[in-house]
């Protein structure tokens, strides 16, 4: 092995370790390598593959989504009462990241298995929230809320951070592709355009509350566990998570909107800091592995 190649491999491995440390990811890329030629639910030319390959946008969108989702009392109760995520935030985000990766880049069988597992877990979660309202985790309206918050957070983060934001038509295509997963998880009547998604999300405002539990979620997210080396990057990631939230959400959680200069400075610093991470993932990340899987099927057909 030539010295430049050795250095590159060392850098790729070191950066990979940092990504796993920040995200809590424990996924095995070998699972995404087979079967050859399997395009999964969407395929490499889809918009969902493009958006979800942007590591920083997914981190920003994931944290933003978690905060937004917590504002729905019954949705939060379903998680609060039936998991220990408050003490294992990184592990929960790691599981969520795996689900997103499996349904985006996995084979069709892998994606459907991941969806079936989540549906089976949801079927056994029920209770009563702090307001005395009953909840069932697989209730279509709760799944719909979680989906809208997640899809809008991911897309908002991508549009804010990407050097090549999507066109309006591409945004609508992303929403339609995400809706396929949402419907398989049990949501109904999901919007199929970017504008209608934002409108539908805002339609929940009368059901949202920034109560003590939601405030605790915000505190936990703001104290995201990170190694000392990763803290500056995570600080910028959290700042950007607020920057991509709708203004009415910021008002609800008592956060000020960043001025344009501050938001742009955060964006620039975050994009610069994420260059090595994105370089590594473009070489060895789950999207790269999935593309190789699809292309091998074409090569040996």
List the topology elements:
Elements: H1 3-23, H2 47-52, H3 55-69, H4 73-80, H5 89-105, H6 108-123, E1 126-128, E2 134-136, H7 140-161, H8 168-184, H9 194-202, H10 212-222, H11 231-243, H12 247-252, H13 260-284, H14 286-299
Antiparallel strand pairs: 1-2
Helix pairs in contact: 1-13, 3-7, 3-11, 5-6, 7-8, 7-9, 11-13, 13-14
Distance between the termini: 32 Å
- Kindly estimate the percentage of residues that lie in beta strands according to DSSP: under 5%
- What's the count of strands? 2
- Please state the average pLDDT score: 90
Low-pLDDT residue intervals, each spanning 5 or more residues: none
- Helix content range: 55-70%
| Helix/strand structural class | mainly alpha
Output the helix-strand order.
Answer: HHHHHHEEHHHHHHHH
Number of spatially distinct domains = 1
Number of helices: 14
Write down the overall geometry: globular
What is the strand arrangement across the widest sheet? 1-2
Task: Determine Rg (CA atoms, Å).
Answer: 19 Å
Please describe the biggest sheet, giving its number of strands, its sense, and whether it closes into a barrel: 2 strands, antiparallel
